[in-house]
Amino acid sequence: MSQMKSFAWTNAASAVARDLDVGFEVAEVTTVDRTNGGSWYWNDQMADAEVLDVDSGAMATTNGFTPLSENANYGAAISAFTNANPGVITVDDSGPAGFAVGDTIAVEGVAESGAGSSLNRRTFTIASLTATALTLDQNTTSDAVYVSGGKVSRVSDVNGNAIAQENFARRGITVGTTPVGANSANMVAFVKGKESVT
User: Fold this and answer.
1) Domain-embedded: residue 161
2) Which of 52, 77, 159, 175 is the most exposed place for a label (fewest CB within 10 A)?
3) Are the C-beta atoms of 15 and 177 separated by less than 8 Å?
């Protein structure tokens, strides 16, 4: 028997591609639109981004399924850094990295420009946070200007206890705009892995 996982979700009013982090290499995947009908299929013998429309039998070579495999991903990806008083780091999603108010965090790998202190290899304390914004305890108005990239990760908690680095790398499948289903649709996906389970 092979590894298997199922997922269920409801698309937003404008359906977008989504990543399914299954924790293993994907051998095949099927998505089903439970609201409007329709199903799509991919297996690892097909090219990346291909998809078979099971109902019509039509093959598409774009906007289908693509394997998702990361070797290492520590912390959260930075998408913006606002030089302000206080400074604000924008991330894609703060939840998986486990950020909490009072944590000491480290910034690494950002491209920056201009004069001022580098943002890289600096630590800050989180004064407040939302799902995508980490408000810092420092004035960053005179620091170098963020251009792109970078990661932010936890160094210690509010009590000063060190936090071990955790690898958040994902393994799974990216469901493109075709097999992700219709706008506002109730969807389900069935994913099988390459490895056997004994």
Assistant:
1) no
2) 159
3) yes
Question: What is the end-to-end Cα distance of the chain in Å, rounded?
Answer: 7
What's the pLDDT score for residue 164?
Answer: 80
> pTM for the full model?
0.57
Q: Which domain holds residue 63?
A: 2-70+170-196
User: Within a domain: residue 162?
Assistant: no
> For 110-143, what is each residue's pLDDT tens digit?
999 988 899 998 999 999 999 899 999 999 999 9
Q: In terms of domains, do 184 and 114 share one?
A: no
List CB contacts of 56: < 8 A, sequence separation 6 or more: none
Q: Are residues 81 and 146 in the same domain?
A: yes
Angle at 51 between CA 40 and CA 184, to 5 degrees: 50
Task: Spell out the SS3 assignment of the chain.
Answer: CEEEEEEEEECCCCCCCEEEECCCCEEEEEEEECCCCCEEEEECCCCCCCEEECCCCCEECCCCEEEEECCCCECEEEEEEECCCCCEEEECCCCCCCCCCCCEEEEECCEEECCCCCCCCEEEEEEEECCCEEEECCCCCCCCEEEECCEEEEEECCCCCECCCCECCCEEEEECCCCCCCCCCEEEEEEEEEEECC
CATH of the domain at 116: 2.40.30.180
